[in-house]
Amino acid sequence: MAALRICTPTGPGEPKRSNLASSPVQLGPDFIGFSSSLLPVGVGYVGDHRCIGSAVVTCRGFFADNVRRKRRPRASLKNSSVCSLGGDGSRESTLCVSVPSETSRYREVPSVLGQKIAQGIDGNPRASKEKEVKLWRRLPGGKKLGRHRASKHGLVKDRHGRKSVVKDDDANAVLSCINPESSIEECNSALIHLEKHSDEKALNFFDWMKANGKLKGNADAYHLALQAIAWKEDWNMAELLLHEMVADSECALDARAFNGLIYVCVKRRLDNWGTKWFRMMLDREVQPNVSTVGMLMGLYQKTGNLSEAEFTFAKMRNCKIKCVNAYSAMITLYTRLGLFAKSEDAIVLMNNDGVVPNMENWLVRLNVYCQQGKMEEAEMVMQSMVDEGFTLNVVAYNTLITGYGKSTNLQKAKKVFDSLGSAGLAPDETTYRSMVEGFGRADKYEEAISYYRRLKSAGFRPNASNFYTMINLLARHDDSKGAYEVLEDMRTAGCQCSSIVTVLVRAYGTAGRMHKVLPILKACLYKKILFDATSCSILVTAFVQKTLLEEALLILREKKWKDSAFEENLYHMLICSCKESGSYNDAVRIYNQMPKSGTHPNLRICCTMIDVFSMMERFADAETIYHDLKASSSVLDMIAYSVIVRMYIKAERLEDACSVLAEMEKQKEIVPDKYLFLDMLRTYQKCGLLEKLSDTYYWILKSQVECDEAMYNCIINCCGRAIPVDELSRIFDEMIQQGHLTNTVTLNVLLDIYGKAGLFTRAEKVFLMARKQGLVDIITYNTIIAAYAKSGNFRSMNYFVQRMQDAGFPVSLEAYNCMLDAYGKAGQLEEFAAVLQKMKRAKCKFDHYTYNIMLNIYGRRGWIEDVANVLAELKSRGVEPDLYSYNTLIKAYGIARMPEDAVKLMQEMRIKGISPDRVTYTNLIAALQRNENFLEAVKWSLWMKQTGVVGSGARA
Fold first, then answer.
1. How far apart are CA 909 and CA 925, in angstroms?
2. Three-class SS state of 66
3. pTM for this prediction
């Protein structure tokens, strides 16, 4: 619904019900879905000369117009000022001059004095020409007031404090009657007149009154000055004036002083300042009156400030003030927010407090129950209204129809609709709209479209909710002809093309009839849509999301608008939508249709397509886009590098990924984000680049990237062997202190590093942490057993082997191999043999590492027969010796003084395609030298150098 915006054409507006909460003059509920004319029932603030139609100067309470009351002029006399409302509804400003004696009543005030006073007010010289002033004077003998009319011109203020040019009395003529000897009543009358026309002139005259001692005990003048200052929103000055009023002029603060300030806050919806003045009023122990509460509650109802409304409402009840509009506002606020239980509680409170409802309050109560579908209670409210003598208006009937619609009791809704005629009322636009909504909600297609057409034939216009309801109803019932009608009505009503398309695609998409949208639009709005970029984008996006790619591509080909930037963003959004839904082929089709620029390709689209091709494992296409980017004038940013690196990682081309990272590092302005750092660490780890891992780790620290759980685990897993052990311990402790959880891989890496570094105390702490968190697996035991085995700590090694079995894990082949290697290198051959027997009883399948350990141990001893047996067993199992096996055998033959067999092994390796490494040559040369074949050893040494064999080689 938010997307449906109706642009109302210029001209006379449609008849609408007055909003009961549109201004503080009428405080009441906002009836949802209602816009019919309300019967002339109003509650206003008596005494605000700024309100159009109200003519009372001083605020003394509320006035109420009953339904049957005739419009009569209202007037009030206070402090020598009279304001009245003419019988024709026009506003008349009047001035009453109180004169002490008959002789002075008609005495002329010198024009020169009036000119001086005028100059003292605004600082500008004025003409001394006297103009007629409309003066009310009481005739001798107590006869009715006579008045002297004069032409009006000047500025007056509307209800929002804005100035507008109208005919009015001339300020100079008013001031010409004032001198330092004038009475306070005369000065106040002049101040009233000036305040209506200009805040500046009124405040300047107020300063003149202060200088001439006219403010002592003159609370009325302060009230007018406060309101003039309030219209200027000079709140600091208003606070100072309140203080001056009490401290200097010895005036007592009352509700009127604050009501003027609050009134301006209400008009301009300044709820914060309205609240401040009310709190100050309470702090100074000034008793609020009905006007205070009514204005504030109306303000909070407009702004939706529930907390302050509740506070003000509670204070009202504590002060025993009975303001019916406050209860109405409170009930309305709760109803708007869906707090229906509290709305009903407020109704109970109102009854308990003995507050008599007015027409507005009855309507508010009725709305509470109808919004909930509690129609029995709503009917009781209607009966109570009739019993109290209120005549039911169309708003009451509309509210009841809405309630029946919400409760899906459409028979009663229709009955209420039919009863309007017998009540002497005619259905208005809200009546028809409510009927459309009710039948539409109940999915009553025939009835809903019937009332929709009756609404139009009655001369009314459907609202946005009606359009939305009807489109959804037509979509569910597959009525394309009716859809043409409603779409045309929406266009006639001034709905924007994009709003119409949005409503249409949502309705038909929900109904599963998205394929019907294009034929419907081609019948009415298609050409207009092709010229509107926003409408096209909405429609194309909806088609892509519903996998109607052909329709989307058709619109993209036929569009008439031209905006390259908007078009690129649209294509990018469509490609991303296909990518997120896994429709990679659709993304490629959209990309292939997109207009492309060879010199300025869209970086974001290219990156997205590289990612799409990577997911499709079309790495050649992804790399082509990357090379096109490099060849263009585009400058790659961090996101582009991240996507390209990830593409090479998925393609398992880690060297190319490292090349891209090296190119990125040359651009000093690029700082990787967390995800790119993770990719860098994993890539360098797989490539075994310990120096790069160390540099990346310190780059992470320098860039102050926020480390989360994944980052900490990745740093420890990847950089654990590239940074000092102390630094590794620091980062691990920091991770634990920040409450991040480790994973099994992280703990196993720490165990391995601490074990190899001989830090067994730390290793055992890590093991205990892993066991406590339930993260111990068979690799954890293998790692700590290997660490103790390598250090020769057989007691701890056997202890953890036993713990491994106690934990329910079988002793693994890796653990047995560690034990074999440890006992064999330590020369404890009995334990070595015992482990072999355990492995055979456990039916462990020996791997290359097991046989190599046996070959190495037997070879060191020179037990060639045992070596031959192991080698035969190895071959009998169909397992060929690997490089490590050959290195071990060559060394064993050298120890056994069998150099010829060692040389034969070299020839066998060549036949099998196993390339010898540096260890192979070293063992062979040592075997020849040990048997005094020095010439042959030199030949092999020279051959090793010629072949360029370098590196550490395999273990020996």
1. 16
2. coil
3. 0.63
